[in-house]
């Protein structure tokens, strides 16, 4: 009588998935672009220079808050997408997937901004007639703080989203023993 031995091998767990990171980045870009345009339209319509009573005070603060909250939400869902699609059950690995989505999203946002604003800037100096230099410096000074706060909070949101996206089903561990069958 012959003896045949079978060894049960545990399933391979995905450690790092670039496909899920790209998917999370595209989810971020879709949410950010869609609702960013909505916010720009709402806040731009609040400032109507042609009307007798323009509402100009506070719109830049409102738009800044809108973009920070929007970035937090968009990166949470981008990180959650990456964590979920990576197939990992480990929350730490999901968090790293989310943080990588954050990095890819920042890179992509800078790239898109450079491509869009590149033609309007010559050698680092704005085109003549667009804005006075002191106004550009004020925008950069205030915008720099908004950007920093938004980036830190968005990074945290992406990490939390990635951890939440990790599949939480805990399967019983597979015992590694040989099953011996008698073959006739």
Describe the structure.
A hairpin with a 2-residue loop joins β2 (121-122) and β3 (125-126). The strands form two sheets. Strands 1-4 form a two-stranded antiparallel sheet. Strands 2-3 form a two-stranded antiparallel ribbon. The protein has one domain (14-118, 130-170). By secondary structure, it is mainly alpha-helical. Helix content is 63%, strand content 9%. It is built from four helices and four strands.
What is this structure, in a nutshell?
The protein has helices at 18-46, 59-85, 91-117, 133-165; strands at 2-7, 121-122, 125-126, 178-183.
Strand content: 5-15%
Principal-axis shape equals elongated
Pick out the low-confidence regions: none
**What would the average pLDDT be, to the nearest integer?**
78
The radius of gyration computed from the alpha-carbon positions, rounded to a whole number of angstroms, is 25 Å
Layout of helices and strands:
Elements (H helix, E strand, L loop, with lengths): L1 E6 L10 H29 L12 H27 L5 H27 L3 E2 L2 E2 L6 H33 L12 E6 L1
Antiparallel strand pairs: 1-4, 2-3
Helix pairs in contact: 1-2, 1-3, 2-3, 2-4, 3-4
